[in-house]
Each structure stands twice: as structure tokens, then as C-alpha cells.
């Protein structure tokens, strides 16, 4: 058999170097793959459809990107019950563990926030925080009907049962408005642990078993969160704007004032500032409507109010159209939003009265503007006096407002030096008549001065 050729030292060194480089390149990737990640978002405002959409997107992102858990750091006074139900449904059926941390110290999970915290796989609270006070209220801040309260009680108790939490507290926080501190919540099985910081929380829940997925297909997973890398999931600029506009009062105010501004601009065109402001306010109002649940009937009443205000501005009278528009606008504010939402009467009635009175004022101003003499074009020259500088039979030339005009006598032949008064126009020619000797003297003195 032929003898194999010995490997040269240089070739052997190259092989070792390639193996070492491959190990170095693979090591970071392997370490990154093994390091757990947690998606973190913050809710520190009213619970609205914008927040519900944001948390739903967070769950999808956590599942898609393979994060160990979704951590929601929360401080909220409450919010809309319908949006809360959507969030709770998402949390109860989430394939990704959800950790809710009521933080920082002094924060609260009140009303809607309490339902959301109870629905999490892990509920944690920072020292000095509290949870509870889940009695539903109307849009005007009054306590809801007994029917609505009973429904909310059943909702809260069912959440507590699925998560193995204190059902007595769930019932009491709705019926009696009960709220408890962090220590009391942990002691009575309302929350799972009291912890002050994010890193301490991730270390504490590491190794905990939780059931994920919908009720019919639930399975246990073990949380691996110690030393996890944090990935922020923010609401973003446009989400923040939508959250800011998610207010029935702002929506009603923008739509009302914007409509009046556009109507006045159309009735009495000017610099366009009113129209621009009105258009911007209307866009903001409709953005708010896209966030909030609204009734078509209320929107139709708003359109009727706009039509009546337009009639008042275009055909001003004794204010009948404005009065009708004010009533329609007030009823539109009452009926515009669904469920527990509603425009606060402290905003509704003053805005309706101000917009109605504004339509009356706008109608008067537009009427005066339409009756005012023209300040531009040939009409502005009617009644002006001048001296004929050049004459040629029936026509001549005069200097008015720094420009030369061709003039033609109405009944007389024009002569140079004659004082004339503009009485009409024909195309680009001005029709003039003699100004008379007395007016001519005054005009000559004015020209001389």
C-alpha cells in the first residue's frame, strides 16, 4: 500500500486556527439563544381601546419572537369596562405567561386595573401600592345600575376562580368598592408577591409553574426569567396621540368647534385661518371617534346640528336655526357614545351654548361682511376723483392709486386738466363725469398738498 504523506506543520496550524475561529463565532450566538428575554410594556393611564390594542399586540409580539413572558408594569385609575374585558380575555387565553407588576410605590390598580391584575398569571405589587375599588360607574361618575354591578361581580369572581385567587375579595371590590394594600393583597391571596424592582421580580418568579393557553387546552410552563434580557414594547408617538384623544369630552369639543369654524369660513371667506383650524379640529375629533365606541344616531344628530348652524350663518335671522342646532348638538353629546361612556355635562352644555351663540355671532359678522363695500378691484375706485392728464376726444387718461387708467366721459367730451369722478366701468375703461368746479378746487388743493 502507498504510504500517506505527512501533514506539514503550517497546514496543521491553519486547521487549528479555523476550528478556533468557528468556535469563537458560534459561542455568542449560542449564548444569545440560551439567554431568556422578557417583553416589557407600561400602562400608566386610563384603560381605553388604545391600551387594549397595545397589550394585544404585545402578546402577539411575545409569542412571535419567543419571549419568556410579557411583563406589564401598571399604574392606572381604571377605565372602560369593555376594553378591560378584551384585555382580560386576551390574558386568560394567552399562550405566553403574563406578569403584572403594580409599580412604582404609590401606584394603584384601581377599578379596571384590578380586573387586569387578577387575570395575570403572576400578580406582583411594589411596596406602598394598592389594588381594588372595582365598582363600575357611568360616564358621569355615578354608580352603575344593579344589573351592571351584578354582571361585574360575576366577571371578577370568574377571573379569580380561573387564577386561583381570593373570590371574596373579587366580590367585595365590586359590590363594596374594597381596596387593599400590597401586604394585605399578598396575605389574602389577591396578589402573588410583593417586590420593589423589576430585576427582583424576574428573579423571584424564576422557576414558577404557570398554566398558559385557553381553558380547554391549558398546559404548564416553567418561567425562566432570572437574568433575562429586557425588550421594551412601547406605545409609540401615534399610539400616545390616540391615547390622549381617547376622551369623549375632547372628541365632542373638537367636532363642535371645528364644525363652527369651517361653516364660518365658508360663509365669509377671508385669510383661511378659521377654515384651517376648523379642519384640524375635525380631523382630531374623528381620530378620537375612531378610538371610542360611538352610536350612529349621535353622529347623525351632530350632522343635523352642523346643518342648522350653517343655515344660521348663511341666512341670519332671529336665531331659530341656532336654537335648533344647540338642542341637536346637546342631544348628540348625550347619545354619541356607547356603554358607560358619556360626555360630562360640565362640558356638554357649555359647549352647546357657546357654539349656538357663536353661530348667531358668525351669521351677523358674515351678513355685515357681505353688505360692506368692496375694498378691492374696480369697485373700489367708484366715487374717486382725478384730473385728466391726456385727452383725445371722448377718452383720456388719469392717474389713480399709482396706476394709469383709460377713462371715457359719460355725456361730455374730456379735456386735459378736467376734474372728473369715476361713476362706472366698462371692461378696462372707467366711466367718468365732471366733478364740478367746487370739488375740483378741493381736489386740486389735495393734489397740491
UniProtKB/TrEMBL annotation:
SUPFAM superfamilies assigned: ClpP/crotonase (SSF52096), NfeD domain-like (SSF141322)
Pfam families: NfeD, NfeD1b_N, NfeD_membrane
Primary location group: membrane
Domain of life, source organism: Bacteria
NfeD-like C-terminal domain: residues covered: 379-433
Keywords: Membrane, Signal, Transmembrane, Transmembrane helix
Membrane topology, record value: Multi-pass membrane protein
Segment forming the signal sequence: 1-32
Annotated ranges, domain NfeD integral membrane: 250-360
Transmembrane segments: 279-311, 346-367
Compartments (UniProt record): Membrane
NfeD1b N-terminal domain location: 38-188
Descriptive protein name: Nodulation protein NfeD
The organism of origin for this protein: Streptomyces halobius
